[in-house]
Design goal:
Structural class: alpha/beta
Number of strands: 18
Bound molecules: GDP-alpha-D-glucose
Shape: globular
Radius of gyration: 23 Å
CATH superfamily of the largest domain: Glycogen Phosphorylase B
Largest sheet: 10 strands, mixed
Strand order of the largest sheet: 5-6-4-1-7-8-9-12-11-10
CATH topology of the largest domain: Rossmann fold
Strand content: 15-25%
Helix content: 40-55%
CATH architecture of the largest domain: 3-Layer(aba) Sandwich
Length: 510
C-alpha cells in the first residue's frame, strides 16, 4: 500500500480542479504558538514560535488533498502566534516547509468564542444532537452569536468562492453558513459532513431554532452523516418542521426553496495504514517501560481512550468495572484498567462536573480494591504521540468503548487497526455509529445495562486465542478496506457525480 498522499493523487479526488476546493472547519490544520507561553515580556517579533501540525484524523487526511489541489482552508485562528505569520487579509500559505495551499484564518473575539463555540455549539447543538435535551442551554445571546460567527465564516467563503468552487463544511459549528453562502454564490457546489449523531424528531423539536438550522443545512447540495439512521432522523425532522419541503425518501433527497439536497451516509474511516505502522514500530520494550512508569503489575490490561465528555460513557464504564471486581474477585490483582482521558471543553460546568465524577469514581475503586502491589485503575490525562497511543492500543488485551451516544467513535476503529497480532477484543457500545459496521465481531454492550456489561467484560477476558484471532481478523479487514482515503473518495466521488448530473440537467433545460 502506498502512502496516503500517493493514494490521494491516484483516487477520485483527482477530479477536484486546482484551486476549486474550499474546506471550512472550526479547528485549523496548523496552529502557530509562542514557545514561551503567555505573559512573556519580550516583543512578539523576538519570541520563538512553533507550528503544531495536524495530529491525525480528518485534518491530517485532508491536508494532502489541499496540498495537491492548491485549495483554501478556512478556520478559526486560535493560536497565540497565528497573527504574527499571517498576512493582513488573514491568509498564510501552508505547510511551512512546502507552501502549497492557502490557510485563511478567521479571527474570533473571546466573547465570540464563549458564545458561539462554548455556548451555542457545545451547550445546545452538542447535547441536543446526542439526545441530552436536559443539558441544553438555549441562551438567546449564544444563538445570536452563532448566527453572526456563521455569517463571518460565510463572508470569508463568499470572498473566495466562484461558480467552479467545491465547498466542504465540517460539523455542527456551521449549520447556517451553507445557505448564507449559497444566496451569494448560487452556482458553487456545497457539501457538509455532520460528524455527530442527528437525533430523532421528538428530541430535535425541543430546539427553538429547529427551522433555521434545517434551512441552513438545506443550503448544501450534499449532506453527509456517519450512518443511515442519522440520515433518516434528519429527513424526519425536515418533514415535521418545514411544511414546504418535498421529501423523496426513496432517493434520500429533499427539495426546499428551489434547491435539492441529497442526504447520504458515509461512515468515516481512519488512517489504518499509519496506525498499523505506528503500532508495529513500538515493541515490547515500550510496553515494559509503560507498565513500569505506571506501576502496572497485573498481567492483563483493559483500556479506554476518550475525550472527557459525558457522551463517552466513562462513568457508566467505571460503574461496570467496580461491579466486575466486586463479583469476580479472581480478577483482583490480575486486571488493570487504563483510562486515557483528554480534558475537553472545561469552561462548561457539565464538563467540570464530569471531571470530578470520573476522578471520584476512580478514587473510590482504587480505595476499595487497591493493594500495595496493585492499582485497579490507572488514570492518564496526557495527550500521547501517535506511536505511544498505538502502542497502548496494541498491547491492551481488551478495549472498552461504552459511549452512551456517539456519531461514529474512531477510537474503536483505531484499536482494531493497531491489533497487528490479532489478539485483542473490542467491547463496543451499541449506541455508537461504529457498532453498525463492527458490531458483529466485537462483544456488544448496552452501556446502561451494568450486569450485561460486567458479564461481557468477563467474556472478553475469557475468550480463546482462536476466537480472538478470528474476530479481530475480520474487524481489521473492515477498517483497512474502508479507511480514511476511501471515505474521502466516496464523499468527493458522490459530490462529483451529483454535480455532473446537475450540470447535465441544466444543459438539457437550456
Ligand atoms: C467526533 C464525534 C466521530 C484521543 N486521545 C489522543 C488522541 N486521540 C484521538 C483519537 C481519535 C480522536 O482523538 C477522538 O475521536 P472520536 O471519534 O473517538 O471522538 P470525538 O472527539 O468525539 O469526535 C465522533 C468523530 O468526530 C469523527 O467524525 O467519530 O462520534 O463525536 O482519533 O485517536 N490522539 C493522540 N493522542 C492522544 O492522546 N495522538
Amino acid at each position: 500500500m502506498g502512502t496516503n498522499t500517493d493514494r490521494v493523487d491516484e483516487g477520485e479526488m483527482s477530479a477536484i480542479d486546482d484551486g476549486s476546493l474550499i474546506v471550512v472547519s472550526n479547528r485549523q490544520p496548523y496552529t502557530h504558538t509562542y514557545e514561551d507561553g503567555e505573559g512573556s515580556e519580550e516583543s512578539d517579533a523576538d519570541r520563538e514560535m512553533s507550528v503544531n501540525r495536524p495530529a491525525g484524523g480528518l485534518t491530517a487526511g485532508l491536508d494532502p488533498v489541499l496540498q495537491r489541489t492548491d485549495g483554501t482552508w478556512i478556520a478559526w485562528g486560535d493560536g497565540d502566534a497565528d497573527r504574527e505569520v499571517t498576512d493582513a487579509d488573514g491568509t498564510v500559505r501552508m505547510p511551512p516547509e512546502d507552501p502549497s495551499y492557502t490557510l485563511q484564518r478567521v479571527w474570533l473575539t473571546d466573547q465570540e468564542v464563549e458564545e458561539y463555540y462554548y455556548g451555542y455549539s457545545n451547550r445546545v447543538l452538542w447535547p441536543l444532537c446526542h439526545g441530552g435535551v436536559w443539558k441544553t442551554d438555549f441562551a438567546e445571546q449564544h444563538w445570536q452569536q452563532y448566527q453572526s460567527v456563521n455569517r463571518k465564516f460565510a463572508e470569508s467563503v463568499i470572498e473566495q468562492a466562484n461558480a467552479d468552487s467545491l465547498v466542504w463544511f465540517q460539523d455542527y459549528h456551521f449549520a447556517l453558513a451553507p445557505r448564507m453562502v449559497r444566496e451569494e454564490v448560487p452556482d458553487a457546489f456545497y457539501m457538509h459532513f455532520w460528524h455527530i449523531t442527528w437525533p430523532g424528531w421528538d428530541t430535535f423539536r425541543a430546539c427553538p431554532q429547529d427551522q433555521e438550522l434545517l434551512e441552513g443545512l438545506l443550503g448544501n447540495d450534499l449532506l453527509g452523516f456517519h450512518v443511515e439512521r442519522y440520515c433518516e432522523n434528519f429527513i424526519d425532522c425536515v418533514e415535521e418542521t418545514l411544511e414546504d419541503a418535498f421529501v423523496d425518501r426513496d432517493r434520500n433527497r429533499i427539495h426546499y426553496a428551489d434547491h435539492t439536497t441529497v442526504i447520504r451516509a458515509f461512515p468515516m474511516g481512519i488512517d489504518a495504514d499509519s496506525i498499523q505502522r505506528a503500532s508495529k514500530s513500538v515493541g515490547t520494550d515500550f510496553w515494559d517501560e509503560f507498565k513500569g512508569k505506571y506501576d502496572i503489575s497485573a498481567g492483563t490490561v483493559a483500556l479506554g481512550v476518550d475525550r472527557l465528555d459525558y457522551t463517552k460513557g466513562i462513568t457508566e464504564r467505571l460503574t461496570a468495572l467496580e461491579s466486575f471486581w466486586e463479583t469476580h474477585p479472581e480478577w483482583r490483582g490480575e486486571l488493570t484498567y487504563v483510562q486515557k482521558a483528554n480534558e475537553s471543553r472545561s469552561l462548561i460546568p457539565e464538563y467540570q462536573d464530569l471531571q470530578q465524577d470520573v476522578t471520584e469514581a476512580i478514587e473510590q475503586i482504587n480505595n476499595r480494591f487497591g493493594t500495595e502491589e496493585w492499582t485497579p485503575v490507572v488514570y492518564l490525562t496526557d495527550f500521547l504521540p501517535q506511536e505511544e497511543l498505538s502502542g497502548l492500543y496494541r498491547f491492551s488485551d481488551i478495549m472498552l468503548v461504552s459511549a452512551v451516544r456517539d456519531g461514529m467513535n474512531l477510537v474503536a476503529k483505531e484499536y482494531v487497526a493497531a491489533q497487528v497480532e490479532d489478539d485483542g477484543v473490542l467491547v463496543l457500545s451499541d449506541q455508537t455509529g461504529a457498532y453498525e459496521e463492527l458490531g458483529e465481531n466485537s462483544l456488544v454492550i448496552n452501556p446502561y445495562d451494568t450486569d450485561e456489561f460486567v458479564e461481557t467484560i468477563d467474556a472478553a477476558l475469557s475468550m480463546s486465542t482462536e476466537e480472538r484471532a478470528e474476530r479481530m481478523a475480520v474487524l481489521r479487514e473492515q477498517v483497512e478496506t474502508y479507511d480514511l482515503v476511501t471515505w474521502m473518495e466516496d464523499v468527493f466521488g458522490t459530490g462529483e457525480e451529483l454535480r455532473a448530473a446537475a450540470d447535465a440537467d441544466s444543459t438539457d433545460v437550456a
